Design the sequence.
């Protein structure tokens, strides 16, 4: 019984302790816990705090990824103690929270930062729900670049491929020379991101959005054709045993010259450089076949939970600083991502970053900026799409293809019944 | 039995022992080697490092900082409480006759089947209402509570190995059930208590799930949260992660070496007097 | 709570009740309340963030019963139970038995066999990701070196292999538990019994099987009971290593619950999986533990 008395005593002590501590700082929750991701986040918080010395933010790291963050947020929302700001994914992720009445509309601060001018149209689309902005972009990564080991290409006299045929020719030449032509890694994202290249080349930007809106079926001839293209042109090039590797292990294979090409988000460039494998020297990149002149991107935004007047005002002040060119560069440069704000001077980036920046500017002008389909689809459809594409990449048989089509089409019909698609 | 057969047996057991030791050590060697590699060298998993990259340890220590002390402040009392509660419950359940004891035992055991990932929301509410959110005593309470089924199960079975005749003799000698528990049963179960202390030290020290839900700041965050932090959404800092792991294993090993000293052969006859 | 003071209570009974009070109170607060609220949630459809949830009755349970992913996870859990009962437990017993004989370097071996058990799950996952790297990992490299390269697999990437690979990692991680409990149990065997057997000329192995092992029954129950339970609620290492992939092939019920709840925001369905998990475990594992526990009492009564 001693234990319980102890506990009660300590509880009383602890209670008085917390009550005495007045809150004058706010929290920003994020899952950028390590390496260049953490460096970027810390720089962003520093920039935000410097701009408004009377309200200070501290970063609270939720180890894991968006899944773990959602779990944390759920308890926080239910107990009425959400953070003032948090790192959110775009599009459907925002919609879920908006529908739950959890997020504060950012209309005021959006007009103050001139959000409609500083962010490209394709970016704006995925932070607004029914025309109202709920998230402010701070972290953008392109996912349609193929990175290649320059030494391998030079040895075989290969030029960066520009279309599917030259891509296939490069694959064949590389395989014959003893290289694993194209790296990939296990998990529900990487195969899916590769598949987007095939998908966009078949259905184009319009078709891509049609799928996102639930208008184009997974059993349509176009979608099947994209699956075939992916299988014939990319899956056939994949390195042996790719599904048993993490993306960093495959990146190591590229560094060590075992694998020649790797289609991956641009964060891999930061990883390469950290291992002293430098852009323009050790590796270079090109836009995946079918996506030349286009940008498919993945993005994180700052979202503001409904809270006290003080917390919302503080969050909006922080956002103003974070959306400025200085704030955007403060994050993007150490992180190795792109600043979504178009006014950020490309000269802040190195060789790799300025290439990505140029790609993104071109795509913005051509109105060919495509958000990651995973986050445009209702959460359960997007997640299942990732799993099914990986499964198909491991076993590209007709049986698996038919199962994939049936499963996804079933989910699409269900989502249509539930009215779950968004009219992007 | 002939001596050659006996020798052959010894050779066989030695071979098994050394073989197993190598299997158990190999992954640890990889971990330790990685902990002293620079980011450049980490891209080749099996290659030996050319230099001792101590920065991994510096990064691990600076990141762990105060959380290391939090972990100690959480683990030591929580281990003591959980063993105490387990022993309290295990004793009557090992000796009670009749169905009521079995019902309680069954109920407590079902508790072990609750997947912790799913009870986080109600748990958070409970702890918050008690005013124990983000406090070290809150962690003691939660670790003690969630150890009830396992510790009860463990101690009940360990107590059951103490011959019942000893219990009956003690009662006849006029030694009450409480005195028996305190003076005879606990000392006779020293190795069981020690084993449980080791297991609980390891379980509480390594807990991540409760720590993430129930702590929010440096005031109470344990070291596991910081270790998990070396694995980010996209990146994993393997060098510091392994360095932090090596460091964080030390306290649990210390507890192991300390408690396993109690693993000495009991003299039951002697304990009964 | 379950004890009704209907018959005459002796002082012993009251002491027993007193001993049970605190554990039972903690249990009621921290287990019964969350479990009841989970069962309630499993009858609803809820994304985890909406202010209201929709009552759907048993629909979550019914649709899961036909879901191939759910059934695959159940099957994997059953295989895990079988594995955990045999491999880490058997290995732990073997190692404890060898070391209990007092072998040279015993202390070092005791440390080696326990070490992996002290490592946090995140680090275990990272270490085994290297061990199992299909081309350059330690396992493949060693197999190549000894000329068995043909046995090398795509350890974590082949849906037909990944579960066995994970089992290897878990055996490495958790054998220390069985080893520790058996070792403590062996050291609890009264010296007199062992001496008596030795004087009669028994070999160490005979002493072990004829004298020590029968007295190890309580330790055996602890190890087997916990192995079965840990296998049912297995989560950490699987989630940190494969997240149930590739393509659900290494899913177990706990990873499925977690993915449904926070990966797909289907809280009601996720909770229904958790309730199924408890129910399956209660049907398969509980009777077995109770049965074994009864045997302890019976053997004492003799």
Sequence:
């Amino acid at each position: 019984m001693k234990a319980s008395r102890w506990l009660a005593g300590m509880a009383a002590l602890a209670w008085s302790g917390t009550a005495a501590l007045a809150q004058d700082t706010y929290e920003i929750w994020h899952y950028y816990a390590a390496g260049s991701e953490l460096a970027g986040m810390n720089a962003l918080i520093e920039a935000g705090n410097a701009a408004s010395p009377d309200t200070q933010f501290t970063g609270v790291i939720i180890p894991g990824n968006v899944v773990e963050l959602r779990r944390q947020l759920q308890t926080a929302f239910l107990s009425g103690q959400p953070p003032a700001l948090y790192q959110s994914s775009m599009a459907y992720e925002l919609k879920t929270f908006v529908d739950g009445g959890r997020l504060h509309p950012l209309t005021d601060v959006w007009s103050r930062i001139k959000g409609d001018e500083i962010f490209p149209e394709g970016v704006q689309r995925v932070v607004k729900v029914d025309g109202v902005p709920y998230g402010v972009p701070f972290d953008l990564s392109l996912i349609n670049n193929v990175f290649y080991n320059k030494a391998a290409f030079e040895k075989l006299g290969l030029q960066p491929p520009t279309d599917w045929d030259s891509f296939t020719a490069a694959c064949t030449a590389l395989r014959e020379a003893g290289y694993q032509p194209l790296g990939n890694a296990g998990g529900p994202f990487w195969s899916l991101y590769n598949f987007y290249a095939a998908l966009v080349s078949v259905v184009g930007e319009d078709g891509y959005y049609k799928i996102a809106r639930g208008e184009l079926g997974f059993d349509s001839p176009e979608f099947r054709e994209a699956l075939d293209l992916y299988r014939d042109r990319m899956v056939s090039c994949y390195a042996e045993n790719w599904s048993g590797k993490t993306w960093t292990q495959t990146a190591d294979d590229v560094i060590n010259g075992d694998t020649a090409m790797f289609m991956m988000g641009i964060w891999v460039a930061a990883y390469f450089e950290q291992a002293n494998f430098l852009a323009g020297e050790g590796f270079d990149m090109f836009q995946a076949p079918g996506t030349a002149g286009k940008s498919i991107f993945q993005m994180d935004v700052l979202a503001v939970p409904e809270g006290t007047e003080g917390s919302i005002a503080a969050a909006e002040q922080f956002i103003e600083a974070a959306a400025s060119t200085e704030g955007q560069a403060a994050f993007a440069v150490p992180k190795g991502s792109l600043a979504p704000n178009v006014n950020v001077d490309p000269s802040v980036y190195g060789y790799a970053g300025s290439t990505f920046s140029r790609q993104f500017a071109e795509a913005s002008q051509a109105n060919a900026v495509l958000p990651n389909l995973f986050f445009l689809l209702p959460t359960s459809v997007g997640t299942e799409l990732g799993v099914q594409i990986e499964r198909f990449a491991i076993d590209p048989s007709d049986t698996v293809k038919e199962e994939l089509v049936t499963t996804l089409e079933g989910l699409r019909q269900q989502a249509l019944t539930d009215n779950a698609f968004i009219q992007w | 039995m002939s001596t050659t057969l006996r020798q052959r047996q010894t050779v066989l057991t030695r071979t098994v022992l050394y073989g197993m030791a190598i299997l158990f050590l190999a992954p640890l060697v990889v971990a330790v080697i990685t902990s002293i590699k620079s980011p450049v060298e980490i891209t080749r998993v099996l290659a030996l490092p050319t230099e001792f990259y101590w920065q991994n340890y510096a990064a691990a220590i600076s990141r762990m900082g105060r959380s290391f002390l939090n972990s100690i402040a959480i683990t030591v009392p929580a281990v003591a409480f959980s063993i105490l509660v387990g022993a309290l419950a295990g004793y009557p359940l090992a000796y009670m006759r009749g169905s009521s004891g079995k019902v309680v035992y069954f109920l407590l055991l079902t508790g072990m089947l609750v997947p912790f990932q799913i009870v986080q929301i109600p748990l958070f509410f409970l702890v918050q209402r008690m005013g124990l959110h983000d406090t070290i005593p809150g962690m003691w309470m939660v670790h003690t509570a969630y150890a009830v089924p396992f510790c009860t199960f463990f101690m009940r079975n360990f107590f059951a190995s103490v011959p019942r005749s000893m219990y009956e003799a003690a009662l006849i000698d006029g030694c009450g059930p409480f005195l028996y528990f305190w003076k005879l049963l606990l000392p006779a179960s020293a190795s069981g208590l020690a084993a449980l202390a080791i297991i609980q030290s390891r379980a509480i020290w390594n807990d991540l799930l409760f720590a993430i839900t129930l702590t929010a700041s440096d005031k109470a965050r344990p070291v596991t949260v910081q270790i998990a932090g070396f694995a980010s959404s996209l990146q994993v800092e393997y060098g510091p992660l392994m360095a932090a792991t090596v460091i964080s294993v030390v306290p649990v090993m210390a507890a192991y070496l300390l408690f396993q000293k109690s693993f000495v052969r009991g003299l039951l006859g002697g304990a009964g007097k | 709570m379950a004890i009704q003071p209907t018959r005459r209570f002796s002082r012993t009974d009251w002491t027993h009740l007193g001993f049970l009070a605190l554990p039972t109170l903690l249990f009621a607060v921290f287990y019964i309340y969350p479990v009841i609220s989970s069962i309630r949630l499993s009858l609803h459809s809820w994304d985890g963030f909406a202010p209201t949830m929709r009552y759907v009755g048993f629909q979550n349970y019914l649709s899961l019963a036909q879901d191939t992913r759910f059934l695959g996870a159940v099957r994997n859990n059953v295989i895990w139970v079988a594995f955990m009962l045999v491999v880490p437990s058997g290995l732990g017993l073997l190692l404890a038995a060898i070391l209990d004989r007092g072998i040279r370097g015993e202390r070092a071996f005791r440390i080696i066999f326990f070490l992996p058990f002290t490592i946090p799950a995140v680090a275990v996952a990272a270490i085994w990701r290297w061990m199992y790297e299909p081309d350059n990992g330690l396992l493949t490299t060693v197999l190549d070196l000894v000329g068995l390269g043909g046995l090398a697999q795509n350890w974590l990437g082949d849906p037909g292999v990944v579960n066995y690979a994970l089992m290897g990692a878990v055996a490495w991680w958790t054998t220390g538990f069985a080893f520790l409990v058996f070792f403590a149990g062996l050291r609890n065997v009264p010296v007199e019994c062992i001496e008596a057997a030795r004087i009669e000329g028994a070999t160490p192995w005979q002493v072990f099987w004829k004298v020590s092992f029968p007295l190890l029954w309580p330790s055996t129950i602890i190890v087997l009971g916990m192995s079965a339970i840990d296998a049912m609620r297995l989560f950490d290492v699987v989630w940190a290593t494969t997240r149930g992939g590739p393509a659900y092939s290494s899913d177990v019920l706990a990873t499925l619950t977690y993915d449904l709840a926070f990966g797909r925001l289907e809280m009601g369905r996720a909770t229904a999986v958790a309730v199924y998990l408890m129910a399956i475990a209660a049907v398969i594992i509980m009777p077995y533990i109770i049965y074994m526990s009864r045997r302890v009492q019976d053997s004492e009564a003799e």
Residues 267-273 of chain B have pLDDT under 50 and may be disordered. The longest helix of chain B spans residues 55-95.
